[in-house]
Amino acid sequence: MDSKSYQDKALSFLAEGYNCTQSVFGALAPDLGLKRDLAFKIASAFGGGMNMGSTCGALTGAMLALGLAAGFGEYSPERKDAFSELNQELTRRFRKSIGHLDCRDILQIDPPNAAQKQSARAPAILAARCQNCVKTATDLVVNILHELDIS
User: Fold this and answer.
1) Which of 17, 21, 61, 77 has a 20 to 30 Å separation from 42 between CA atoms?
2) Has residue 151 got a pLDDT over 80?
3) What are the angstrom distances between the C-alpha of 52 and each of 69, 72, 117?
């Protein structure tokens, strides 16, 4: 897995109009065994912090990819705890890189508010910050998967 090529793919999807979750998850999912169109459908509800400014959609897309690659299908407390630790590590690294976890804090707007969202588009605040989150989330999850020797 080459982080730069996944980042480029994710940014391309973002530029096409896919949300941040779809962009990150859609870039990674096919190489993890899931068809891209299905990945886009699964991720469609999570952009813009679940369309309400909550957890950044780019981070959510990375979490989905992490789950697809390293999650558990058969329950055991040990598997659940091990995956929880991985997910927390991804979240910790994202917060360290971006400074926040929630879309509204990253964008400094309330994403469901159409007027605020439009005003953030004019000076390209939304584009620059979302691109940075997409690049960062993609890079972080690829790095974690490399550390786990999943490629």
Assistant:
1) 77
2) no
3) 27, 28, 12
Determine phi and psi for 55, rounding to 5 degrees.
Answer: -50, 130
**Within a domain: 11:** yes
How far CA 88 is from CA of 30, 84, 91, 139, in Å, comes to: 24, 6, 5, 16
Q: Give the rounded distance of the alpha carbon of 133 from its chain centre.
A: 8
Please indicate, yes or no, if residue 131 is contained in any of the structural domains.
yes
Range of the domain at 132: 3-146
The sign of the dihedral angle between the CA atoms of 106, 108, 111, 115 is negative
CB-based contact 11:24 (threshold 8 Å): no
SS3 assignment, position 111: coil
For residue 120, pLDDT over 90 is answered with no
